[in-house]
């Protein structure tokens, strides 16, 4: 420090230059983090294929099959692959659902804990000097989807597993109480890792969690109960000035939605696609299109938490199985694809407006990447589908969403 100060004192002429240099340094305070979600590790992939939708897969691929959850090889290589693409990240967000889509009779408290433990150990091995901020998914509890609100065995056990990452003894009560916690990423910027509860401080926050609020489209399904969804949205609107961004998982598709306060866009919820290629088979036999494993590298402003870009990586499952080698391929940069300077809420509002043209390239790109493959789906999103998607992007609560749907189907 001293030599520079002497230098500046000696030469007044240098002051403007130093000033600009400092501005340059501040403007360049950009960091990266990985967001990875929904591994759904099927420990029976090579044997009983418990997650495979009742299909009999005679030649299961080395890194997975689109009817099944992830084999260990996909879990392992996908995490190793993150390090190969970019090892120098500020932290990793891991937003839950480690347990496969299999019936509870094949699971147990101990087994679920073991699955989470093994993936945790792998993360620690591949990112030994990086904090991983992990949250629960709805499948991680036993029985699945039923989280006890207080002091469950799984909270206590998982706290011990994630303790070194959380690295703050003051969070033990929160975690034991509800599986949630908050950590300071740096001065002024905080991460809130949610389970079903949230709270705020004066810092700017990045909110990370598993089940997102709002409606997944084009299915038009709300995951949260109506009351909790409304409560969640109200809280985000009330505190939007301190929320830099929300990063969630659960849907397995690449998507986002905007929180609007009246006409004003105030926060963006980014939804990362899953690592598992498992596709939904809906009651009645309807199936969702196949999708590839994905992971995303998020560029953010370390001072404000603002999202600057998303580099979306994917693994073409057919190709990596054929090559017997797993590799993450860059699918897109969100700023380049949507033609915006960053992913601030103002920019995302512009993106939403550009998507309102159903035949425009922006909406076509959205549709192409929804299934993490960059290809046009077999049945393109038609005009009705486009309307539903737009309603989901703009409206997070029951009444406005239903009004939007009603409007769209009658005009
Ligand atoms: Zn999931
Ligand atoms: Zn889930």
Automatic annotation (TrEMBL):
Its main location: secreted. Its cofactor is Zn(2+). This is ASM3B-like protein. It comes from the Eukaryota. Residues 33-253 form the Calcineurin-like phosphoesterase domain. The keyword Signal applies. The keyword Cell membrane does not apply. Belongs to the acid sphingomyelinase family. Residues 266-409 form the Sphingomyelin phosphodiesterase C-terminal domain. It is found in: Secreted. Keywords: Glycoprotein, Hydrolase, Metal-binding, Secreted, Signal, Zinc. It comes from Mya arenaria.
């Amino acid at each position: 420090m001293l030599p520079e100060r002497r230098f500046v004192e000696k030469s007044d002429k240098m002051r403007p230059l130093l000033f600009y240099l400092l501005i340059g340094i501040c403007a360049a305070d950009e960091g990266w983090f990985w967001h990875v979600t929904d591994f759904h590790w099927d420990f029976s992939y090579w044997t009983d294929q418990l997650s495979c939708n009742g299909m009999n897969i005679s030649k299961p691929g080395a890194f997975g099959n689109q009817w099944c959850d992830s084999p260990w090889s996909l879990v392992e290589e996908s995490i190793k692959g993150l390090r190969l693409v970019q090892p120098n990240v500020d932290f990793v967000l891991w937003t839950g659902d480690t347990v496969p889509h299999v019936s509870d009779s094949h699971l147990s408290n101990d087994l679920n804990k073991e699955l989470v433990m093994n993936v945790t150990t792998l993360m620690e091995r591949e990112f030994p000097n990086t904090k991983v901020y992990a949250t629960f998914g709805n499948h991680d509890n036993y029985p699945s989807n039923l989280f006890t609100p207080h002091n469950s065995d799984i909270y206590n056990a998982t706290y011990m597993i994630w303790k070194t990452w959380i690295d703050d003894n003051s969070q033990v009560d929160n975690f034991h109480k509800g599986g949630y916690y908050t950590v300071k990423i740096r001065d002024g910027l905080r991460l809130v890792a949610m389970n079903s509860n949230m709270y705020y401080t004066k810092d700017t926050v990045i909110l990370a969690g598993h089940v997102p609020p709002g409606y997944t489209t084009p299915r038009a399904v709300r995951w949260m109960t109506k009351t909790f969804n409304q409560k969640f949205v109200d809280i985000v609107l009330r505190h939007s000035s301190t929320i830099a961004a929300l990063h969630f998982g659960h849907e397995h598709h690449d998507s986002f939605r905007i929180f609007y306060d009246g006409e004003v866009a105030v926060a963006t919820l980014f939804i990362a696609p899953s690592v598992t290629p498992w596709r939904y088979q809906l009651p009645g036999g309807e199936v969702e299109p196949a999708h590839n494993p994905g992971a995303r590298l998020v560029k953010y402003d370390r001072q404000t938490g603002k999202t600057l870009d998303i580099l979306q990586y994917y693994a073409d499952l057919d190709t990596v199985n054929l090559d017997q080698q797993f590799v993450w391929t860059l699918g897109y940069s969100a700023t380049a694809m949507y033609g915006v300077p960053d992913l601030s809420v103002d920019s995302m509002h512009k993106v939403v407006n550009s998507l309102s043209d159903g035949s425009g390239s922006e909406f076509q790109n959205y549709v192409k990447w929804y299934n993490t493959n960059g290809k046009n789906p077999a049945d393109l999103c038609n005009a009705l589908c486009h309307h539903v998607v737009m309603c989901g992007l703009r409206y997070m609560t029951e009444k406005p969403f239903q009004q939007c749907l009603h409007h769209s189907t009658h005009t």
